[in-house]
Fold this protein.
Amino acid sequence: FDGGDPLDDGRIRLLRARTALARGDAPAARALLDAGIVVADLREGEEELSETWSAVAERLVAGDAEITDEVRATARAEHPLPARYDFLMRPDS
């Protein structure tokens, strides 16, 4: 422990964002993501951050409505995944 606030740990912040989303508070989850979440031991290919970002964006677009393919497409267009949260592995183009 480095003496900092343990709630500022990246994994804890990510869990806080996911918890806010699960409780129906997508704006709070988005605020945590916008403030920045750095998970020091996140590896290439891990999708926790990108999946959380997408789920939050979808809920922001859908509101209380069902999340459909149209909602997903709109969420991707209106809330693109920031590079800092893109740990997906892709073949070279």
Summary: The helical segments are 10-22, 26-35, 48-62, 69-78.
